[in-house]
Amino acid sequence: MLKDLFETVFYHDTAEIKEQRATYKNMVFILKPSGRLFIQGSLHKFYNLLDEVHAPNQKTEFKKSKGFNGNDFDYDSLSCSIMCLFKMFDIDIEKTRILNIEFGLNIVHGYNTELILNGLLRHHGALFNKPLYNSFRKLRHEHYFIKCYDKALQYGMNDSVLRFELSYKKMQELNRVGVFYLVDLLDQSILQNLLPILIKRWDEILFCDYTINSKRLINTDKLKLANYKNENYWHSLKPNRLHRPKKHLEALTSKHSINVKESLRAQLIDKWTKLNAECVI
């Protein structure tokens, strides 16, 4: 089936064959002249496209073809996606090496997603970007990205849905917990190893809680809170000057807010548990 879909891509300058490319649903197959086959795409979106599940705002065929990953994606769905690649395209899942991967969770919550995104300040010295449109935040490290999305805004969903995910471009950390080949994603014990990594990154984020009640603060704390909400303030601090304001912000959050970050943390763990180690990959 796959060979009938391939189209040849040439180098413009030399007219030599660069690669052959085929697309099915949202999966892209790239065959190099060396014979190596690369596969790109979201298994979550692939599964929804196979099952004809689309977002509320995907009304046209073009928008539907973009795929949808705002719903839950459990272990059965993940297994089905991988086995479809195996059966439909004769992909050897035991020899298909994972070169990069994204995994995360969608959680329905009762807070203001825009203000949650605004509260994401920094992680290990790197600042979250703030795009012109307010549906996501992204932060880059050498080996991975941290991403946070407003899925309800992106897909026209009624519930407030926040997606938190890690996108790994280098696999050393995940190799250490057993993620090497596509077949490894069928091993629930390996999938379980990803939750502590996800939660660890969430815990490490410097977050300014929009529910901190400034009316209950003394004037000096009000002034400090105004600084804490400002990304430039954190960017201006030297590394050896970060500890005290971070601890003070944590104290204000603990004492004077409903602690949105801790609540969302619990929801991430709960969602993972309810999916029975069937994380969104």
What does this structure look like?
The chain is an alpha+beta fold. It has twelve helices and eleven strands. It has helices at residues 43-50, 61-65, 75-89, 113-119, 151-155, 172-175, 188-192, 194-204, 219-228, 231-236, 243-256, 260-274, and strands spanning 7-10, 17-24, 27-31, 37-40, 101-108, 120-123, 126-127, 136-140, 144-150, 161-168, 206-207. The strands form three sheets. It has a four-stranded antiparallel sheet with strand order 1-2-3-4, with no helix packed on it. Strands 5-10-9-8 form a four-stranded antiparallel sheet. Helix 1 crosses helix 3 (75-89) and helix 8 runs antiparallel to helix 12. The radius of gyration is 21 Å and the shape is elongated.
Overall mean pLDDT: 91
Strand order of the largest sheet: 1-2-3-4
* Discrete helix count: 12
| Proportion of residues in β-strands | 15-25%
- Count of beta strands: 11
Global geometry: elongated
* Unreliable sequence segments: none
Q: How would a textbook summarize the main sheet?
A: 4 strands, antiparallel
Helix content: 25-40%
Structural class: alpha+beta
N-C termini distance: 25 Å
Q: What is the radius of gyration? A: 21 Å
Order of helices and strands: EEEEHHHEHEEEEHEHHHEHHHH
Task: Output the keywords.
4-stranded antiparallel β-sheet; alpha+beta; 281 residues; 12 helices; elongated; 37% helix
